[in-house]
Design goal:
about 45% helix, elongated
Length: about 150
C-alpha cells in the first residue's frame, strides 16, 4: 500500500514525513469491499499523521514522496486488529454460554466482553513486538508529484 507524504524535516539518516491530508490508506474506503478505515481516521481527528522513517532515497525537506507499507505487514496487522478480536468475542461468548446454563444471555455477554478484553491485550503485545521490526515499518519508495 502506498500513500503520498511530504518530508517535514530530516533528522540524521531519518526523514520525518507527514501524510497528505484528505485520503488515507489505499483510497478505496467508500467502494464496495473497502474497509472504511478513513471514517475512523476522521472521527478521531488523526487526519495528519507523521512518521519517522529511514531516508533511503535521500529526500529533502519539503519534498513530496510515496510512503509504502509492505503488503505482508498490512495483511498481518489487519488480521490482528480485525479478525482476532472477532474470533475472541465469539469464543468468549461460547465459553460463557457453555458455563452458564440458565443465565446464558448474561454469560454470553460477559464471555464476549472477556474475549474482547483478551484480544485488546493481545493486540497491544503484537504492537510491541512488531514496532521494532523493520518489515512492519513504512518506507520511502520514491519521490512523487504533489
Amino acid at each position: 500500500m502506498q500513500t503520498h507524504a511530504r518530508v517535514d524535516r530530516i533528522e540524521g539518516s531519518m526523514a520525518v514525513v507527514e501524510l497528505a491530508g484528505g485520503r488515507s490508506g489505499c483510497g478505496h474506503c467508500n467502494e464496495r469491499g473497502g474497509c472504511g478505515s478513513a471514517v475512523l481516521t476522521e472521527a478521531f481527528g488523526t487526519r495528519h499523521r507523521t512518521y519517522r522513517v529511514p531516508n533511503t532515497i535521500e529526500a529533502r525537506c519539503g519534498e513530496h514522496v510515496l510512503l509504502e507499507l509492505p503488503a505482508a505487514s498490512l495483511s498481518r496487522t489487519a488480521t490482528a486488529v480485525y479478525v482476532i478480536p472477532a474470533l475472541a468475542i465469539i469464543a468468549g461468548a461460547a465459553v460463557g454460554v457453555a458455563a452458564a446454563g440458565d443465565e446464558a444471555d448474561w454469560a454470553a455477554l460477559a464471555g464476549a466482553a472477556a474475549g474482547f478484553a483478551a484480544s485488546l491485550a493481545g493486540i497491544a503485545a503484537y504492537r510491541r513486538r512488531t514496532s521494532s521490526d523493520p518489515k512492519y515499518r513504512p518506507v520511502l519508495s520514491r519521490s512523487a508529484a504533489p
